[in-house]
């Protein structure tokens, strides 16, 4: 039991250490986290991580995901009320994200477009959100066009989510060669298993059953080495890989 406890402390400390590096925190946090993995992680969570989760855009998405699991319509209701109170860019973006999450992407499009006509007109994250809304609403060509323009204007901008949206749009438009290139690149660096599951499904739909099965088997082997929290985060995509593997496996 002590060994398992120490392992958990180290995993939590490593998670916060990655966050510290990616978010540009002072390097002394790394010493605190690994010198005192239990109390150090607690201090970091209270001082840095929780405040960021509360106020950042990504944090709002994370909190929103938990809320949707408990009350699927709550975020959409509250976002609609916020826009009725004040139709500013921040409230419109919140509502747009809520519409996409609720499977009503077409209703998100005008709110993203309105946000881009304000002081946020060059915000790449809003453009990625709009591209996702286009894609989910069945407008893959518009999604790809928007992201191509963003790449041209902001070649330094990096967004794994945007890259995944772009790859999905390319696939929806039937460009096999570029689909392969984009998804193979994504699989090489994307933190989650969504690109693996989506690409395996694309390969299966194209009739490339052997490639799809090999990707499923390789991904599932690797997923067994993931820590418990990472498997939980990727539960949907691991499940899709498992179901696809079962359907493709020889009788």
From TrEMBL:
<keyword id="KW-0472">Membrane</keyword>
<dbReference type="InterPro" id="IPR014562">
    <property type="entry name" value="UCP030959_TPR_rpt-cont"/>
</dbReference>
<keyword id="KW-1133">Transmembrane helix</keyword>
<keyword id="KW-0812">Transmembrane</keyword>
<protein>
    <submittedName>
        <fullName>Tetratricopeptide repeat protein</fullName>
    </submittedName>
</protein>
<feature type="transmembrane region" description="Helical">
    <location>
        <begin position="30"/>
        <end position="51"/>
    </location>
</feature>
<dbReference type="Pfam" id="PF14559">
    <property type="entry name" value="TPR_19"/>
</dbReference>
<dbReference type="InterPro" id="IPR011990">
    <property type="entry name" value="TPR-like_helical_dom_sf"/>
</dbReference>
């Amino acid at each position: 039991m002590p060994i398992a406890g120490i392992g958990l402390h180290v995993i939590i400390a490593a998670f916060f250490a990655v966050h510290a590096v990616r978010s540009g925190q002072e390097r002394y946090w790394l010493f605190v986290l690994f010198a005192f993995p239990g109390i150090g992680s607690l201090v970091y969570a209270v001082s840095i991580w929780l405040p960021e989760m509360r106020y950042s855009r990504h944090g709002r998405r994370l909190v929103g995901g938990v809320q949707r699991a408990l009350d699927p319509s709550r975020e959409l209701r509250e976002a609609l009320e916020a826009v009725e109170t004040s139709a500013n860019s921040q409230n419109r973006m919140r509502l747009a994200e809520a519409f996409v999450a609720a499977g009503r992407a077409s209703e998100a499009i005008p709110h993203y477009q309105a946000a881009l006509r304000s002081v946020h007109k060059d915000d790449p994250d809003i453009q990625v959100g709009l591209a996702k809304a286009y894609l989910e609403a069945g407008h893959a060509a518009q999604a790809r066009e928007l992201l191509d323009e963003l790449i041209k204007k902001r070649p330094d901008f990096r967004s794994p989510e945007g890259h995944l949206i772009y790859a999905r749009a390319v696939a929806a438009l039937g460009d096999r060669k570029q689909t392969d290139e984009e998804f193979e690149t994504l699989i090489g660096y994307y933190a989650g298993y969504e690109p693996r599951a989506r690409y395996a499904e694309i390969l299966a739909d194209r009739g490339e059953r052997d490639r799809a099965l090999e990707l499923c088997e390789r991904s599932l082997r690797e997923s067994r080495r993931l820590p418990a929290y990472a498997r939980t985060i990727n539960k949907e995509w691991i499940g899709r890989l498992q179901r696809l593997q079962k359907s493709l496996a020889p009788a």
